[in-house]
Design goal:
- By secondary structure, this protein is of the alpha/beta class.
- It is built from eleven helices and six strands.
- Helices cover 54% and strands 13% of the residues.
- The protein has a six-stranded parallel sheet with strand order 2-1-3-4-5-6, with helices on both faces.
- The radius of gyration is 21 Å and the shape is elongated.
- The model has no long low-confidence stretch (mean pLDDT 86).
């Protein structure tokens, strides 16, 4: 079984190499940055990729983005995400792609080497390996929209289409004052207090699109 690893921490990367090789896996390449991952996956076309989410240079979601891009080029490429973080947007895109094996494990919840190797083999074989905590967090992020009324969801949907309050009012045959009230209710229910740094309208639309 040929594996490509993406992990920026040198000790952990070396440890993964040693563990995989001890269980008869061939590590085709081990990279430590996001930009290096996609070329490595396309070059080696491994049986499975073990990928961290946050990689240099920005330490945001380079690993997941590279994995998704690789699966677009190599449909069904098995990917096992091994991270300390749950990144909901790209994680959901990866996990809802029915082609090939996928997995998402949290580093600090992998109890032993056997559990990790079992997950690697399962994903390489086209199966899934999901940490229940990952599933829980992904589902939890969808719950706030459940608190919205039907009308509030309609307003949020119109916001997602880029309409102004006046355009929303005309579309839904209500007053602008009513639209403004609905939007304020949406911000409250999505726990988006006033902020100098964040555009709440954009954040609310992102929550709508994510769900």
């Amino acid at each position: 079984m040929r594996v490509v690893i993406a992990e920026d921490l040198a000790l952990l990367r070396d440890g993964l190499i040693r563990i995989l090789e001890a269980f008869d896996c061939e590590v085709a390449e081990a990279v430590d940055t996001g930009p290096a991952l996609l070329p490595a996956l396309l070059r080696h076309r491994p049986d499975v990729a073990v990928v961290d989410v946050r990689l240099p240079p920005t330490f945001t979601d380079e690993g997941l983005q590279a994995a998704i891009a690789a699966r677009a080029e190599i449909p069904g490429l098995p990917v096992l995400v091994l991270s300390q973080h749950v990144e909901p947007l790209y994680a959901r895109e990866l996990l809802t792609d029915a082609r090939g094996g996928v997995g998402y494990l949290l580093k600090d919840r992998v109890a032993n080497v056997s559990q990790f190797i079992d997950a690697v083999r399962r994903v390489a074989g086209g199966g899934t390996a999901m940490d229940p905590e990952v599933v829980s967090q992904l589902l939890a992020r969808r719950e706030p929209l459940a608190a919205l009324t039907v009308r509030e969801k309609e307003v949020l949907g119109q916001m997602a289409e880029g309409r102004s309050n006046a355009a929303i009012a005309a579309k839904l045959f209500v007053t602008e004052k009513a639209v403004s009230k609905h939007i304020n209710n949406i911000f409250t229910k999505l726990a988006m207090p006033p902020s100098d740094d964040d555009n709440r309208r954009v954040l609310a639309v992102l929550a709508f699109l994510d769900a």
